[in-house]
Design goal:
Elements lengths: L1 H33 L2 E11 L6 E12 L8 E9 L8 E5 L2 E6 L2 E6 L10 E3 L2 E3 L13 H12 L4 E10 L2 E13 L2 E11 L5 E8 L7 E12 L10 H7 L1 H7 L17 E4 L7 E4 L8
Antiparallel strand pairs: 1-2, 1-13, 2-3, 3-4, 4-5, 5-6, 7-8, 9-10, 10-11, 11-12, 12-13, 14-15
Length: 293
C-alpha cells in the first residue's frame, strides 16, 4: 500500500510539473505574440563543426508586428554592424510584400506584387520550407518567428519540452525553455531559450544541431539593449529608407542598374575557376585575400 501511495504521489508531482511547464510556455508564447514593436542589439555566434572555430556577428535587429500582412505578419530590418569585413554592412529588410537582401556583394529583391510565389511557404516531408523573406540566417531570432517556432514544437509529438525557473538570491531571474527534437528516434537538435522572468522577453537562445555527432554545430544568440513599444517612422522598413540610407548599394547593385564599371574599388567576390596554365589546375580567390576590382 505504501509503495502504491509513493507511485501515486510521484505521478501527481510529474503531472503537476508538466502542467506548470505548459502554462509557462503558453505565457511566453502569448508575450511574444503581444510584442508590437521590438529593437535589439544581438550577438550571434556559429561554432563550426570539427574545427571548433567560431564565426561572430553583431546585429541591429528591428521588428514591427503587422497583422494585415498575410505573407509574414510583421516587418523587419536586420543589419550586420560588426563581423568579418566581407559581411559587415549586409542587411535584410522586409515590409508588406517587398523583400531586400544585400549579402556577398549582391542585392536580391523580391516583390509580391510582381510574383508572390517566392513568398509562399511549402511543405517538404516533415518540414515547412518558409518563403524567401522568412528563410534568412537571422530571421528566426525575431519575436514573431520565435513564437511560431515554439508553437510548432508544442504541437509536435516528436518534441520534448521542459520549462524551468532560474533563481538568483531567492528571486526568479529567468525562465528556461529546453527543447529536444527527434527524427526517426534520433536526436535532431536541442534548443535552449532563456527569457527574462519579469518581462518574458528573450535574452538568450542556443541551438545545437545534431547533438552528440562529430559534425555537431552550435548557434548562439544573445539579446542586449532590447526595447519594445517603439514608434518606428512610417518608412523605417521601406524601400524609401533604403534609397535614403543605402544610396550607393541601391544604385550600384539593383537589378537594371548593375554595371561592372560601378564596382571598381570594391572587394572582389569569392570564386574559383579552371586555368589554362600547365600545372595550375584552378585559380581561387577568397574574401580574406582582400583583392579589389
Amino acid at each position: 500500500n505504501n509503495a502504491m501511495k509513493v507511485v501515486a504521489l510521484l505521478c501527481f508531482l510529474s503531472a503537476s510539473v508538466l502542467v506548470h511547464g505548459q502554462i509557462s510556455l503558453d505565457s511566453i508564447i502569448r508575450k511574444l505574440d503581444d510584442i508590437s514593436s521590438f529593437k535589439s542589439r544581438v550577438s550571434y555566434s556559429i561554432t563550426q563543426p570539427l574545427t571548433d572555430g567560431v564565426v561572430d556577428y553583431t546585429l541591429d535587429m528591428a521588428y514591427r508586428k503587422t497583422p494585415s500582412d498575410t505573407l509574414g505578419g510583421a516587418s523587419y530590418y536586420i543589419e550586420i554592424i560588426d563581423g568579418h569585413p566581407a559581411v559587415k554592412g549586409d542587411f535584410y529588410c522586409y515590409c508588406g510584400g517587398d523583400y531586400f537582401n544585400f549579402a556577398n556583394q549582391r542585392l536580391r529583391e523580391y516583390h509580391a506584387s510582381e510574383n508572390v510565389a517566392p513568398f509562399i511557404s511549402r511543405q517538404s516531408d516533415d518540414y515547412i520550407i518558409p518563403g524567401v523573406h522568412l528563410s534568412g540566417l537571422f530571421v528566426g531570432e525575431l519575436p514573431g518567428e520565435m513564437k511560431k517556432e515554439l508553437c510548432r514544437f508544442r504541437d509536435n509529438p516528436n518534441v520534448r519540452i521542459s520549462v524551468t525557473t532560474d533563481s538568483a538570491y531567492g528571486e526568479a531571474s529567468s525562465i528556461t525553455v529546453f527543447v529536444e527534437e527527434q527524427r526517426r528516434d534520433l536526436p535532431l537538435r536541442e534548443i535552449t531559450y532563456k527569457f527574462d522572468a519579469k518581462s518574458l522577453l528573450p535574452t538568450y537562445k542556443e541551438v545545437v544541431n545534431s547533438p552528440g555527432h562529430m559534425a555537431s554545430q552550435t548557434v548562439t544568440t544573445r539579446y542586449e539593449e532590447t526595447q519594445t513599444g517603439l514608434d518606428f517612422p512610417d518608412d523605417y522598413f521601406s524601400e524609401k529608407r533604403l534609397l535614403r540610407e543605402k544610396p550607393e548599394i541601391m544604385a550600384s547593385f539593383r537589378k537594371g542598374s548593375f554595371r561592372a564599371e560601378q564596382l571598381k574599388g570594391r572587394p572582389a567576390p569569392d570564386f574559383s575557376l579552371p586555368t589554362l596554365s600547365e600545372g595550375v589546375q584552378r585559380f581561387t580567390l577568397t574574401p580574406s585575400q582582400e583583392m579589389k576590382l
